Amino acid sequence: MNNGNYITQEVEIKGMTCEGCANTVKTNFEKVKGIHSVEIDLENNKAILGAEFEIPKESLETVLEDTNYEVVEYTVEDTPVEPEA
Asked: Residue 27 carries which DSSP code?
């Protein structure tokens, strides 16, 4: 476990071009076990995830399987973030 802190994962998404796209990606990522927050940076085609543990890239790809979006790049930040209240 992570002592109540979340780790930050940054995911570059191919195919996000509008707010509707961003909402679809956000909704799908929110379904993944362990993810507690999803922020979308539409300008840079990224999703910033707050998670209890590192979510495998394959899990993120699977949840987007039936959409027009694709995980291009995936990084995990070493600095934990505080969970939202």
From this structure: H
Contact predicate 14/45, CB 8 Å: yes
Q: Which residues on adjacent β-strands are paired with residue 41?
A: 46
Q: Which domains does the chain have, with CATH numbers?
A: 6-81 (3.30.70.100)
Which pair of tokens denotes residue 32?
């993944």
Tokens of 72: 């291009």
Residue 53 is encoded by which pair of tokens?
A: 């543990």
pTM comes to 0.82
* pLDDT per residue as tens digits for the range 22-58: 999 999 999 999 999 999 999 999 999 999 999 999 9
Q: Of 61, 57, 60, 80, nearest to 8 (Cα)?
A: 80
CB 9 within 8 Å of CB 77? yes
